[in-house]
Design brief:
It is a single chain. The chain contains 29 helices and 22 strands. Helix 5 packs across helix 10, helix 10 packs parallel to helix 12 and helix 16 crosses helix 17. It is 47% helix and 15% strand. Strands 11-12-10-13-14-9-17 form a seven-stranded parallel beta sheet. The protein has a six-stranded parallel beta sheet with strand order 3-2-6-7-1-8, with helices on both faces. A five-stranded antiparallel beta sheet has the order 21-20-19-18-22, with no helix packed on it. The chain is an alpha/beta fold. The radius of gyration is 29 Å and the shape is globular.
Length: 714
């Protein structure tokens, strides 16, 4: 097969090893997606395997989409029957077919974080617990952690200890699961757990999928949790042709349940495993890879491997020592502007940070300079109020048992159905053991004539929309919902910019529906709701937009950029403070640093500050140990003396710099010199800002406290 000839020796070995368990240790940028897609093509073209018998699993819709596109280029129409999808999408497909065997109906809905929060608040209230003592976000995290480890409510105390608080958390967890089932809903964690439950409780279903999927491939295996591991183990136990691809050095999701032992112990779990290492990197320069290798080699819990490349040496890694976070942001933006002036695009730059809170200062400077940027991991499109409201309408039309969605939209826009009315209806649901929608159908039994009329009008409208749903496509249905509910009319009454923005978002939602219908074989409302329920932050990243990317290091995994800034590289910031006393967490932080470094193709900048204001206080943190693990021969230093200023001198340097600025007053007409932009003339000045006309770059407005200016003339 000609395509095999284009692979390197290790890649070729991975493609040709088709029988039995196979562990592919794929270093960053080593072409793992290429290997998986060529392996699929080889199985079908050379081995004669039916596409129907192949399952390829990955973690994001973006990765699954890219994999499918590549397979289609190699195979054309033959790729149609291959399951190439995320864990959750595969499990949803299995559950849509057979979930009735474990007591749910096929039109179940999938709850997102805000739906879960609403349901948990309801549980806490019903159990007469104090929400301040049992914060919904904390309880949701505890429940998710238990589900990641496949711990059911009845086993919670055995796993976490039988004390007073845990007993209450167990009660909330139990009630939460009861209400999910009553609403015919699954949360994100349940999707995989219920599939495992289905497999274990119904051998016929398990046998069908075990026999069907003769060849199973799992991407990003280092990110699997206990439930995902169990799902894969059950599916692959019949044919045993399981190929997993991953990199233990990129295992960075331990905090959300991923278990690095799944990849480290693969050879123990699956007898007669073949191991192939992909170590040739096609992405980065030699100096960037050398830095990544040197940093991650300090971890003990890893499989030995070393990235290498035939790419050029490239530029040294720049380590910038800033006086504070403002100086740090100014430096990054200056370097971006210089690069764009040389012909780089804004979209070739990414600023990566450990925590979202670090983004604000960078946003301020980018906004001031008029530089386009996009944030990944902020408020997602599907998390905006108006979008969630319309999705809630669609969910109720699909599944009237969904009390959470029904409660959200019953009085949106306002139609005279207040909290008092809802409370009476909910009491009736508990008494009768029925859903909230069913209680609305019987509202005359419990409500006053006036309140009952408002509810009856709402039910009549929803009944009409349910009838419409059966005869129109999704786009038309959304248009009908917007029209019949009066949602857009309500927004049009408000002429504020925010209301106009919401109307534009709703129009964009119609575009989402149109694109779904153009691209999907199953164009049903159920498929549409399922599709948007499984969207992640990275899936929403528009890579065609020419804008600087701001995102967390966790969010950057799987992406690459020509130029990368890793900012805030200080002890207590990165590595984060809670990891400093825990060896396992510290090793995960180091892997996160490795991921950040290997996002860069051509140029890597690392910044740290002498002092930093975080959460209302000023800290003076030493440079990150990860920076000091990069050999000096790979580094060029910029800023205040490079990266080796003793901690005792940091306060002095920062105070001296501020003192010198305080005593330096700028006067209109004065000549000043900027470290990067050269000589300029002051044209405006006050206590906080100075505006300078530079010969090289034109007019710039600078903050007096942080302007790197030197007075050179009257």
């Amino acid at each position: 097969m000609n395509l095999i000839e284009s692979l390197n020796e290790a890649q070729r070995s991975a493609v040709l090893t088709t029988e039995g368990p196979l562990l592919i240790l794929a270093g960053a940028g080593s072409g793992k997606t290429r290997v998986i897609t060529y392996r699929i093509a080889y199985l079908i073209k050379e081995k004669g395997i039916s596409p129907y018998n192949i399952l390829a699993i990955t973690f994001t819709n973006k990765a699954a989409r890219e994999m499918r596109e590549r397979v289609e280029k190699l195979l054309g129409g033959e790729a149609r029957d291959i399951w190439i999808m995320t864990f959750h999408a595969a499990c949803v497909r299995i559950l849509r077919r057979d979930i009735e065997r474990i007591g749910y109906s096929r039109n179940f809905v999938i709850y997102d974080t805000s739906d879960q929060m609403a349901l948990l608040k309801n549980c806490i209230k019903e159990l007469n617990l104090n929400e301040k003592m049992y914060e919904p976000a904390v309880i949701m995290s505890a429940i998710s952690r238990a589900k990641d480890k496949m711990i059911a409510p009845e086993d919670y105390l055995d796993a976490y200890g039988d004390d007073f608080r845990n007993r209450k958390i167990k009660d909330i967890y139990s009630l939460y699961q009861e209400k999910l089932k009553k609403n015919n809903a699954l949360d994100f964690d349940d999707i995989i757990l219920k599939t495992i439950q289905l497999f274990k409780s119904d051998p016929e279903v398990l046998d069908y999928y075990q026999r069907r999927f003769k060849y199973i491939m799992v991407d990003e295996y280092q990110d699997t949790n206990a439930a995902q591991y169990q799902f894969i183990k059950l599916l692959s136990s019949y044919h045993r042709n399981l190929c997993v691809v991953g990199d233990d050095d990129q295992s960075i999701y331990g905090w959300r349940g991923a278990d690095i032992r799944n990849i480290l112990d693969f050879e123990k779990d699956f007898e007669n495993t073949t191991v192939v290492k992909l170590e040739q990197n096609y992405r980065s320069t030699k100096q960037i890879l050398e830095a990544a290798n040197e940093v991650v080699s300090n971890n003990k819990g890893r499989k030995p491997k070393r990235l290498w490349t035939v790419n050029g040496d490239g530029m040294p890694i720049t380590v910038y020592t800033a006086v504070d976070e403002h100086d740090e942001a100014e430096y990054a933006v200056t370097r971006i502007l210089e690069g764009v002036a040389r012909g780089n695009s804004f979209g070739s730059y990414a600023i990566l940070y450990r925590t979202n809170a670090q983004s604000r200062v960078f946003e301020d400077v980018l906004n001031r300079e008029g530089i386009p940027y996009r944030m990944v991991g902020g408020l997602r499109f599907y998390d905006r109020k108006e979008i969630k409201d319309i999705i809630a309408y669609l969910r109720v039309l699909q599944n009237p048992l969904d009390d959470v969605s029904l409660r959200r939209i019953v009085n949106v826009p306002k139609r005279g159905i207040g909290e008092g009315t809802l409370s009476k209806l909910e009491e009736y649901t508990v008494h009768k053991g029925i859903s909230l929608y069913d209680a609305m159908l019987e509202c005359g039994e419990v409500l006053s004539a006036r309140a009952a009329k408002a509810v009856e009008n709402f039910v009549e409208m929803m009944t009409e929309l349910m009838a419409v749903k059966e005869v129109v496509d999704v786009t038309q249905l959304i248009e009908e919902v917007l029209e019949k509910t009066g949602y857009v009319k309500e927004l049009e009454k408000d002429e504020s910019e925010e209301a106009q923005s919401r109307i534009q978002n709703l129009r964009e939602f119609l575009t989402v529906a149109q694109e779904f219908e153009a691209q999907s074989e199953d164009k049903s409302l159920q498929a549409f709701l399922e599709n948007i329920s499984l969207v992640t932050d990275v899936d929403e990243l528009d890579e065609s937009q020419d804008a600087v990317v701001l995102m967390t290091l966790h969010g950057a995994k799987g992406l690459e950029f020509d130029n990368v800034f890793i900012v805030g590289m200080e002890e207590g910031i990165f590595p984060i403070s809670r990891a400093m006393l825990d060896e396992a967490q510290l090793e995960e932080e180091r892997r996160l640093c490795y991921v950040g470094i290997t996002r860069a193709r051509k140029k890597l900048y690392i910044t740290h500050a002498l002092q930093r204001s975080t959460y209302g206080s000023v800290s003076y943190n030493p440079v990150s140990r990860f920076v000091e693990e990069i050999p000096e021969y790979l580094v060029e230093h910029e800023g205040y003396g490079g990266g080796s200023i003793p901690r005792s001198e940091r306060k002095y340097i920062a105070a001296t710099r501020k003192s010198s600025r305080d005593s330096q007053a700028y006067i209109i007409g004065q000549k000043v010199q900027h470290a990067k932009w050269g000589i300029g003339t002051v044209i405006e000045a006050n206590e906080s800002e100075v505006v300078v006309a530079f010969d090289s770059v034109g007019t710039k407005r600078l903050a007096v406290d942080f302007a790197p200016l030197k007075i050179v003339g009257p």
